[in-house]
Amino acid sequence: MANLKNFLNNSVDDLPQSSSEQTKILAKKSFVPAILITISFIYVGLILLLPAANVFVTAFSKGFGPILEAVKRPDFQNAIKLTVALAVISLPLNTIFGLSAAWAIARNKFPGKAFLLSVIDLPFSISPVVAGLMIVLLYGRLGWFGSWLEANDIKVVFAFPGMLIATIFVSMPFIAREVIPVLDEMGTDQEEAARTLGANDWQIFWKVVVPNIRWGLLYGLVLTNARAMGEFGAVSVVSGNIANKTQSLPLFVEESYKQYETEVAYSAAVLLALLAVVTLVLKEILERKTHNANSRK
Amino acid sequence: MVTTTPSSPPDKKRSQPNAFLKMLAKIPWTWVITFVYLTFLLILPIVAMLTKAASEPFDSFWKTATSPLALSSYEITFVTAFAAAAINGVFGTLIAWVIVRYNFFGKRFLEAVVDLPFALPTAVAGLTLATIYSDKGWIGSLFAPAGIKIAFSRIGVWLAMMFISLPFIVRTVQPVLTELEREIEEAAWSLGATKFQTFTQVILPPLTPSILTGVALGFSRAVGEYGSTVIIASNTPFKDLITPVLIFQRLEQYDYVGATVIGSVMLAISFVSLLAINLLQAWSKRYG
Description:
- The structure holds 2 protein chains of 2 kinds.
- By secondary structure, chain A is mainly alpha-helical.
- Chain A contains 15 helices and no strands.
- Mean pLDDT of chain A is 87; it is low at 1-27.
- By secondary structure, chain B is mainly alpha-helical.
- Chain B has helices at 8-15, 17-26, 29-54, 58-65, 68-101, 107-114, 116-119, 122-132, 140-143, 154-179, 182-190, 195-224, 227-232, 243-252, 256-287.
- The longest helix of chain B is centred in the first third of the chain and has 34 residues, at 68-101.
- In chain B, 47% of the residues are buried.
């Protein structure tokens, strides 16, 4: 409420009017912020917070017992392993790509720069189901690489490699998107200084660039990880959803729910929801760090 | 653009390996990584699907793309997604306004919660929404006596789309609102404009492009959404069967042609919305 008073004082100071009019305006305006803030909380509460709260309430409604029971199931453990594996492999690959692309785009001027940026953003606007379909059409039995893969006895679709490709596809743009603005902001002065002092590319990258972009990069990594672990649509199309084999944690949630094993579904869901909470907390911290780093300049 | 680039590298590799490798060696490796990655993981899959779709005779392509079931799925998907994005356009702008302009208890919490749909896997969102809005759920049970069914109906799909598209509007409007100069508003006030006039004539015009961009981003995300919508919908044809689910069902029935044709329609719409978003962003920059 103190801030509300502040807000009012500021606006009143700016108005060169008689005191009776001032009080009128004050009385009229004082409700607006409070009403808007209340509406915001109600809307966010209903649309976002209530569903999120329900995950925890339902999962823990009978204590930890059912969750511990569910975690013992081999298909559950397998789903966890698979989800972690997908993230562990796709994260470094997308980091290498994201840094290369960010560097190439932020440090060069060329025609079609805006176009290349939108190409990198494409995975965000393509439906995950369509992304999965495209991978099936490319690597499936009847796809372009299908006969070659079959001849060499490599399974991509309905197997781990296909799920990995789908995961990489949907989480591809995050790092480049977060790092490009930081590189733009940073400018090239420090890099040029390092170069005149005799540093090579590798030294410049590790000693000058990385310290500058670290928070933006971490932020991108957090988002990539959340998407990689949580992806459902694309992975679902490609995986064939075979229990114990190609069932990642989000697929396991849906499958258990469809089999009316609601308790098991919620046990898996609560793990993913915890991941979301950690993601949000890290996101807040990193957002503040990047913001501070930028405003210091 | 998409159709020409990817077919050439594999051909060149085979025909003139030396010349191609020499050319590659001269390109900075950041470019090489960027292009190889994009070509194999993004462009090639898109081309594979477009080629497959193009190999279908136009007549049968058209017939599949405009079958009654497909048409009804487009209507359900696009109208519902638009309704979700439009409502979030209003409330998302309001939330962005509140976050930028006011200080209040719980502001940081509100800011963090807005990003929840980015962090919460869609399967979990679908599961919990289906539970809350079912006949026995927290909210569904309030509507059940009136005979209103929310989960496993089109209203459920709409709610799921609202859930996933909200942060796009808030996060697009917020930075523009932060940059907005308050002096102009104060000038309008001191010239005797009412609060309402100031809002509609001074604040809203420069904000409009970013609101529309946010709505377009949210819409495009809602149209493509699968995880949460497939769980909360009953997926009944002509009732609440959305296009992504239809593509999935086609694939499950090994109808690759049908899936590809409808998938190409979705892809075309993704391209159009991406173009629209870029144009809107260019428009909104002109205000800055």
